[in-house]
């Protein structure tokens, strides 16, 4: 094997596995993390025992319940998963010269320099598996390969607790040639549909219809054709908080909301959480985006560019003015976010201006918190940092909804 050596690591049923690790009574049972069956929402992760019932991520929780009424349903505990994830990433960092983190539980590791050859890479991969088992108490699946796509394919190949190697483009092609086009990661639902509509179902069909695929998908088509031959030159992108494209928070109400004053207040409370995250990253947003799903499941997103914003009250104000342009209908889900994140202030303000402005914003924020306190009988002012915790944020909003 010449060239790059890339490892793809993916924790097995991460959220569910953490819960089982911490509560042995759950072992061997179908554990479903996400919403609870009487709530609205979806499955976030589920154990392999639950998958045997046909349950999968992103499935409507009501459908999951129909398939497996005896399952154990739990809310996710993101704070816990985040702290477990940090420990896992520390192990990965020991072996990678570059790490591209994909999720809390998934990353590509470039081990070319440290491994030197395939034997070295195999040792590293198996060491990572062993250390995660011994030090964290969880299993993961690991793929070793010559490229990103092959490494990801390899780690999926023997899941859970798997290990697999794909050492050459030829091995990759032999493995996947008769699979559906979306076995090439990066081919999503829409691209698959487009290809299918043009008679291209299998990866073999992509290889045999190169020109057609390129004509259909342009530059992306070229990339997909290359992947189908196992050619993937992409370098790993080291995680950089500045690459975070958007910070947003959204909530699915337990009952549809048609009170637009309540929705505006909810946007402000969600914005407090968005602003805290943006601040933690040390960034500013240059765009605000509003998302609404109505009770007929139609979803709209509206965005607008702003000068720069980082305070909850600024984010909420932009969101509210976007909301005001929409027709009044029953709302199932509402979300707000900032995008176009950047790490410098666009406007050139003097220090006096900044102090004046910040005082102003502080005053407005306090006023708004006081108003909400009176309206909902909620003590925001002293507990505002608690809203950074997602579970408390959601409970607070549900409390507001019931209070109306
Ligand atoms: Mg995973």
Enter the CATH topology name of the largest domain: Dna Ligase, domain 1
Could you say which structural class the secondary elements and strand pairing correspond to? alpha+beta
Helix content: 40-55%
| Gyration radius from CA atoms, angstroms | 24 Å
Strand content: 15-25%
The residue-averaged pLDDT reads 90
Following the backbone from N to C, one meets helices and strands in this order, namely EHEEHHEHEEHHEHEHHHHHEHEEHEHH
* CATH classification class of the largest domain: Alpha Beta
Report the span from N to C terminus.
65 Å
Name every ligand kind in the structure. Answer: magnesium ion
Globally, the shape reads globular
CATH-level-2 architecture of the largest domain: 2-Layer Sandwich
- Largest sheet at a glance? 5 strands, mixed
State the assembly state of the protein chains.
Answer: single chain
CATH superfamily of the largest domain: DNA polymerase, Y-family, little finger domain
- As for the number of domains, it is 3
């Amino acid at each position: 094997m010449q060239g790059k050596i890339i490892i793809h690591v993916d924790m097995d049923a991460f959220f569910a596995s953490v819960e089982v690790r911490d509560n042995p009574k759950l072992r061997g049972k179908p554990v479903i993390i996400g919403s609870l069956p009487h709530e609205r929402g979806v499955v976030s992760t589920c154990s392999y025992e639950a998958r045997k019932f046909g349950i999968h991520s992103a499935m409507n929780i009501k459908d999951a319940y129909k398939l497996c009424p005896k399952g154990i349903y739990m809310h996710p505990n993101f704070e816990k998963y985040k702290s477990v994830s940090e420990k896992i990433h520390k192990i990965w960092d020991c072996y990678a010269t570059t790490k591209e983190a994909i999720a809390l539980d998934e990353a590509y590791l470039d081990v070319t320099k440290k491994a030197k050859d395939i034997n070295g890479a195999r040792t590293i991969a198996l060491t990572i598996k062993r250390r995660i088992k011994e030090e964290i108490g969880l299993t993961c699946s690991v793929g070793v390969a010559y490229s990103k796509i092959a490494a990801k394919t390899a780690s999926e190949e023997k899941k859970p607790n798997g290990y697999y190697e794909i050492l050459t483009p030829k091995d990759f092609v032999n493995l996947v040639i008769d699979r559906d086009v979306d076995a090439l990661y990066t081919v999503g639902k829409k691209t698959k549909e487009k290809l299918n509509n043009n008679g291209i179902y299998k990866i073999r069909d992509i290889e045999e219809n190169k020109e057609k695929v390129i004509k259909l998908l342009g530059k992306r088509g070229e990339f997909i054709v290359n992947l189908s031959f196992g050619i993937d030159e992409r370098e790993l992108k080291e995680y950089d908080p500045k690459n975070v494209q958007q910070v947003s928070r959204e909530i699915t109400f337990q009952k549809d909301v048609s009170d637009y004053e309540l929705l505006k207040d909810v946007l402000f409370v969600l914005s407090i959480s968005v602003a805290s995250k943006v601040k933690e990253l040390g960034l500013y947003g240059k765009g605000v985006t509003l998302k609404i799903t109505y009770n007929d499941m139609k979803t709209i997103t509206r965005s607008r560019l702003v000068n720069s914003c980082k305070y909850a009250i600024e984010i909420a104000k932009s969101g509210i003015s976007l909301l005001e342009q929409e027709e009044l209908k029953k709302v199932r889900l509402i979300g707000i976010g900032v995008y176009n994140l950047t790490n410098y202030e666009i406007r050139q303000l003097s220090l006096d201006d900044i102090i004046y402005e910040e005082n102003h914003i502080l005053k407005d924020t306090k006023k708004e918190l006081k108003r909400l306190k009176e309206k909902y009988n909620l003590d925001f002012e002293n507990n505002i940092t608690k809203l950074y915790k997602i579970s408390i944020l959601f409970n607070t909003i549900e409390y507001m909804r019931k209070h109306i």
